[in-house]
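Incident log entry.

Two folding requests arrived from the same account within the same minute. Monitoring flagged them as a possible duplicate submission, but the sequences differ. Recording both here for audit purposes.

Request one:
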Amino acid sequence: MSKSPQDLQIAILGAGMGGLTCALALAQQGFKHIDVYETASDLGFVGAGIQLAPNMARVLDRLGVWKGIEAEAVNLEETSVRTGASDSELAHVALQYIEKTYGYPHMVGHRASLAGGLYEGCLKHAQIRFHFSTTAENVTFGARPTFTAVPRDTSQSPYTVEADVLLGADGIKSNTRVGMLELLGIQAGVQDTNQAAYRIMIHKDQIQDDPELLELINSNKVVRWIGEKRHIIAYPVSNNTIYNLSTTQPDSNFAAATNATYTTRGSKTAMLNVFGDFCPKVQRMLNLVPEGEVCEWKLRVHDPLPTWVHESVALVGDACHPTLPHLAQGAAQAIEDGAVIAVALAKLPDTTPASIHKALKVYEKVRKDRAYALVDLAAASGRALHLGDGAAKEERDKQFAALKEGKGPVPDKWADADVQRNIYGFDCTKVTEEKFDEYFA
């Protein structure tokens, strides 16, 4: 008897947003043998705030996990773009139309809530097995890809895993990507963006005596303060009990760091100096960060890859399309990847290695151009936000002024209605179902 697609053995490397979505979406499609290998001992998502855009919510809802995530999130009703130094408003965009237009509101939540919701969804499916504290090494490519699973517990011996399909959702430092590119003789390096980020969480009990900050945390508003080469985006999460700030600034602390270094313990004094010319409201929030708890992230992206797929192996999420945070689409795009892979594999006409490869190429055709277009758009949006004095800044601020009169494009592409249409209006699973036969052929 020939094997059905649902009998395929699927190995997923990495239990981030992309890996968890791959597992859950495949289980929902009836796949019976799904194994997830994760280097960390548990999910342990400390993380910070995360934007839950309609294109993400649509996938999560179909996977049966959106309601629980939504219950802990905050519905964004408006966005305000402000000058960092003066706190004067450059632009204001109402966001209530998003739910009416795309079927889901634009919400924000805690990264732990999103990851936890996906993980809890996975635990309801006995066919998904998690292998924590296990590193994947020596990936081989072929009709039946393999890798060496190395348990962190040294009393356990490494062992070889063989699968019909291997999904490399192993993050921006993906070993699967490195192995694939070496095998194919492709040179694709890491692009240093010369930008870094602080991520800050302020709890409501820290600001009980500050009416201005209480107004922010009790709102349904996202605020972006912009200055030359720097900005801060901020919004409430966790049912308005935490105020999340994410900054972007020139990278000075990683100048001598190796390529492997993506985070460093930051200096509070240095952080305050970076935003020293921003308004008192911002200063008060940054001052609330305890000394010794400042952490800075280096922002890097890859050179675009010519392929995400080789034989029966595919790359997922940050392994193939890491992005700058200026469109708030990093997790959403990894989640779209997982949803598309599950549909493509479920529609396999047979389970030969040739057909598996073609189905994974369908995933690539649905996702690759879209993902890279958004990577480029996020970078462009960041450049527009960080302009210093000069003609380009004057033109940008004219666009912001016109926007206040209801005219023209939004320099902050995250809030631009035309950009939102392209991002939020795209139904990745529907497109995969409709285009599968054409792309598979």
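Request two (distinct sequence, not a duplicate):
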Amino acid sequence: MAKQSTTRQRKQDLYPLFGEMTSPAKNIRLCDPEAKEAMAAAKAVVTASKENALRFLQSVGIVTASGRLAKRYGG
């Protein structure tokens, strides 16, 4: 269980908005102005560099740790 909490903390460190947007304490609709601002900020962080984009894709399971496409996505 410690590994899971460490992974969650790492994601929140890399993408602080990720934790805010998925918090069960507050429901956010995509049509809310604050959600639009948060998504724009998250997009800016993820698309700022190739390294950030790769880390994001790895964090959501689309790309493996070695940088290859995950099997479930055709890799």
